Amino acid sequence: MRVLVAGAGGAIGQQLIPLLTGAGHAVGALLRSERKRDALLAMGAIPFFADALNSSAVRAIVERFVSQSFTSSIAPFAIYLPALVTVRLINRNANELTIRSLRIGTIVLALFLFGLGPASRAQDLAIMHATVYSAPDAPARRDVTVVIRHGVIAEVGKHPRMPRDIETISCQGCVALAGFWNAHVHFMEPKWNEAANQPVDKLDRQMSEMLNRSGFTTVVDTGSDGENTVALRRRVQSGEVLGPRIITAGIPLFPAHALPYYLDVLPADVKAKMAQPETAADAIIDVDNNRAAGYDIVKLFTGSIVSPDHITPMKVSIARAAVEEAHKHEQLVFAHSSNLEGTKVAIDAGVDVLAHTPEVTSGIDETMLRRMIAQHMTIIPTLKLFSRDDNIANIRGLAFRYHQLGGRLVYGTDTGFLQDYDQSEEFRQLVQAGLGFRDVLAMLTTAPAELFHLSQREGKVMPGMRGDLTILSEDPASGRPEAFTTVRYTIRGGKVIWRSN
């Protein structure tokens, strides 16, 4: 459930918010001032600023919170007003918000929140006798049991307390890790068309082939026909389709009159939807329209490859306007920068993430990398995409140097654009670049959780964290990059969404 807590800076709100985020709920925190903003972000809440007694301001914030679905996989909402002890249940039907108020006691409120949120849809599960890495920098713990209750990790230990009727998986020889992220995928293949109406078994099969079998419990779609992806996300959120949590950019923004040449194969109706803002004002409108459509992040092509030998940059003023509008609504901004000029635009505009290592590395020096690090930018290497390029060694070297300097790398592969879904080559390239298994594990788990401000409740195998796990048959400490592909179980919120034969 997504819960908007008014009076979040007060005594009750300060105690309630960690309980809600720890249980897997997405929490918005309504405050009058920004004084406690950082503290609430550290608790895993999304801060909003308004007077709780200003009904029009609160309603506007509710609309924003409804559209910010990337921090939650559940559709229902509640507003908690401590001073009035009132819950407002909000259900979204088409484009309308239906609100009804209930006056209840605080204890009943807590039971309501924990009973109707993710916990009621998630499962209890115990993974028995596994080797567990609780975090990328933690030692392996042998013969350990992980207990998931109501979708949240309850205990990790040798002899944990377990309900008698809990489902168990005997996992001798297994390695349990926090659920993997793939922060660069696309639901752009024709098989995802009409996702709202496709048979469940077909979507289940496609999800398993593309994502579930590789251990992904969260994916970031960095560009697709948003209408299809939002429909697919809705069916996954409801539990109808088995799949990872989906965070989507929907349709990216491109430089004016400069669509990438490799998108020529797309249908004309899809290309007609692609925003190509000519002014800063256009960019703001495009970002707002995407957010209203339910998209979670913004994707910019700050360097668009319009032909194999020509890259057109986005104007800095347009990119900056898009970034500022996205940040105003707590949205991250990804960029496909392609080369030096596109990377400069991304840096100057304040972009958060480079969706690829720039494929043309010439001129991108250490000074530029250090500036990116100072701005807390993230790089998604996507090395498999470039593995056959003549300059792959330079691309690998650039990604590794960024890591060496202290920059954050997050795992992503361009799966969906690349229709070969096997992850082995990406892991081989990362190891060849110089990254160790713990570095790669961080890219898959804690780094993306930090990027999306979710590290208080996911990314590690610890009590209070989301019950998202990736279970391997081989310990990646073996030094074999392919160990990360030996997925035995993919578990999301305590529910097995994929198991090997």
What is the topological layout?
Layout lengths: L1 E5 L4 H12 L3 E6 L5 H6 L3 E4 L5 H13 L9 E5 L4 E8 L2 E8 L2 H11 L1 H4 L3 E8 L8 E9 L2 E6 L9 E4 L4 E4 L1 E6 L14 H11 L5 E6 L4 H12 L7 E4 L19 H4 L8 H13 L5 E3 L2 E5 L2 E4 L2 H13 L4 E3 L4 H10 L3 E2 L11 H9 L3 E2 L12 H13 L3 E2 L14 H10 L3 H8 L1 H6 L17 E4 L14 E6 L2 E5 L2
Helix pairs in contact: 9-10, 10-11, 13-14
Structural class: alpha/beta
Span between termini: 33 Å
Mean pLDDT, all residues: 87
Count of alpha and pi helical runs: 16
The helicity comes to: 25-40%
Low-confidence stretches: 69-76, 83-120
Identify the overall geometry. globular
Total strand count, please?
24
Beta-strand content estimate: 15-25%
Q: Outline the biggest β-sheet.
A: 8 strands, mixed
The radius of gyration is: 22 Å
Could you walk me through the main structural features you see in this protein, from its secondary elements to its overall organization?
- With 501 residues, the chain is an alpha/beta fold.
- Helix content is 31%, strand content 24%.
- It has 16 helices and 24 strands.
- The strands form five sheets. Strands 7, 8, 9, 10, 11, 22, 23 and 24 form an eight-stranded mixed β-sheet that branches.
- Strand 23 and strand 24 form a beta hairpin.
- It is globular, with a radius of gyration of 22 Å.
- About 9% of the residues have low confidence.
What keywords describe this structure?
single chain; 501 residues; alpha/beta; 6-stranded mixed sheet; 24 strands; 31% helix
